[in-house]
Amino acid sequence: MPLRKLSYLTLLGLALMTAVSVYFVAQLRFNYNFNDFYPAGDPDLDYYEQYSARYGNDNDYVLLGVEAPAGRSVFEPGFLTKVDSLTRFIQQRRHVVHVTSPTNAANPVVEGFGVFNIPYLHPQEPARRAQDSVLVYRTPGLVDNLIARDARSVTILFQTTPNLSKPPGDSLLAAVRTELSRQGIAETEYHMAGKMVAQSVFVDRLQWELVVFMSLSVVLVTVLLWFTFRTWWGVVLPLVVVMGAIIWGLGLMSACGVSIDLMTALLPIMLFVVGMSDTIHIITRYSTELGYGASKKDSLLIALKESGFGSGLSALTTSIGFFTLMTSTIRPIYNFGLFTGISVLLTFILSFTLLPAMLVLLRKPQLRVPRQEGHSWDGVLGRMFRNVLAHRRLVVGLSALILIGSVASASRIRINSSLLDDLSKNDPVKLDFVFFEQNFAGVRPFELALQPATGRSIYDLQVLRETEEIEGYLQQTYGLNFVASPVTIIKSVRKALNGGLLEEYRLPASEAELTQLVRRVKLFRKKPEFRALVLPDGTEGRLTGRMPDVGSVRAEALNADLRRFLSQNTDPKVLQTRLTGSANLIDKNNENLTLNMITGMSIDIVMVTLIVLFLFRSVRMTIVVLIPNLVPILVVAGVMGLAGVSMKVSTSIIFTIAFGIAVDDTIHFISKLKLTLLQEPSLFKAVRKTYLMAGKAVIVTSLILVGGFSTLIFSSFDGTFYVGLLIGLTLLFGVVAELTLLPILILYFYKHKPQEIRQPVPLLTE
């Protein structure tokens, strides 16, 4: 079949595939589900899902903090009237299950067969202001929970329907903000926090940043391609190929029902810069042959033949680098690794189908750069090669010193994460969360399941006393600023039965009194805060609380101390406990981060080792290839340690991805060297020739990769910022190692037919 006809058929088939992909891409949706970051398949996740089915999720709430006007107290009637109006407004909103506010908090009192709720605050009775404020500060659970200790702000907590999605969540938040504005409360006077708030902000920013970073990447890559090839087709064709691969990848993701989240949002940007490698190697070789006077057909065949093997291997190693992320138990990382890895292979397919088809149909291009000037790359690379070998001891010595320092610095890296890891310290959303940590109980939820021993009820006096002892430890030592449990229910009922007197807020002294209290608990069974603490049959209970977001390292230490306390002070024949909750699950991710990273890196290294062994049948050559690619990884690890960057979910993927991408140029180099050695018996001349042939493509692709990833440093998400910065640094160090260490190591360690190798020193003067 004639080449032109084959090219037309190829383009038609690819156009149909692209049309189908565009259909699915149009259905893609942005989403950020906090629950997706729980460790999938973990027994603790299964337990928490059952636990939340009984009591509800511990993070389905929104905290609304409202500050009193400057110089005024929250107890002033005018301010309390606004708070009460807000409370009533929120209570009437759809998807709001329950609202807790200073103005609807009440002191229950039982008289006869009825329960009377006496409010703690009376906005319409200014004369009671002093009396109300004294009562509030004496009542447990109000100060630091609903009212700030300095009486300058209050909190309204509204519970929402479980796992509320973004559209209704955004509508609810918008309605609340509109009402705040109507009440004359400025944006600087209120703060909102909670899972729903974070999800809303994250999704909106994902959409904006995806557009911005793709635009920046397109502009940057276009400029670099123009300066490299100086032809319109050298710019347009690579862009068409990579854009096609992005559309295919996103279409496949959409067809599989996967949304764009914080991780998969990186797929288009990452694929755009990574996918350029194959097209640049093909076009570089193609234009070189044209410069030597070869025909268009011969130039294309030579370019495809020489680039095909290396591009196939590099696509394989790069995709494996992403596929290894599938070892993660975190679903967004798993999806990112899977679909980016597939997209890399799709880019390879398009590079050797779409690109050749377009080159065949184009007329033979007139190179804008004359042949003599075009060889300036050879002159530059030739001088670099000579200088590297002339200063080989300095290169090796400096590399060794940098490596030793990096390893020492890398030992300072710590695994640590928090609930809002991906937001910078000065982000408005994070500052709102900090407001609740500084003025109220905090935003980090705490959950402890309470399971009475067989034959006992959660209302047994011994069970309640042990629960009370646990409460005391959690408040005094662990750091909970708010706590509620079945003990809260019994104490509240006892107080209600004794005229609402604060002195009666305690556990009963005898079983007989407890029995009477338990009978009266049914009077309060409709109160949502009671239903959320004990199962109706009393067979199980819940201890819940809130605290500041101390980070996973501190939380792990606190939990270890808590488990030690529970084992020493809790009788399993009376009460058994289990730590659970969303924060606990997020912390558990840290236990898997190191293992996942080591697993991913190990798979990458094994695959590269097998490829080099297959090509050269040499263990020495395998070590030679691995060293220049592991050195940049260790150097960046040292940078992380020196800069105090913690290892967390977002940064744990950096090393695996960086190694998979960095080894790409090495694979191209050694595959070209393998072909050159078939024609050139001298190892030195073969390495030099390969250096000149591959050097331009290595430098150009590395510049595009570094530049493309560098655009991510403008992200408002810390995780995306560090992915861009650290992978960019890894690739920058990688190209330096590629052009310095790699040729030195090959020449002095690889044994290729020693009898035919010329001595390198005299040749340096040629």
TrEMBL record:
- What SUPFAM superfamilies does the annotation carry? Multidrug efflux transporter AcrB transmembrane domain
**Key words of the record:** Cell membrane, Membrane, Transmembrane, Transmembrane helix
Using the UniProt record, give the first listed, main subcellular location. Answer: membrane
- Report any Pfam family annotated for this entry: MMPL
Cell location = Cell membrane
What range(s) does the SSD domain occupy?
Answer: 239-361
Q: Which Gene3D superfamilies match?
A: Multidrug efflux transporter AcrB transmembrane domain
The portions of this protein that span the membrane are 6-26, 210-229, 235-253, 265-283, 333-362, 394-413, 593-616, 623-643, 649-670, 691-715, 721-750
Q: Which PANTHER family match?
A: MEMBRANE PROTEIN MJ1562-RELATED (PTHR33406), MEMBRANE PROTEIN YDFJ (PTHR33406:SF13)
Query: What is the official name of this protein in its record?
Result: MMPL family transporter
Q: Which organism is it from?
A: Hymenobacter nitidus
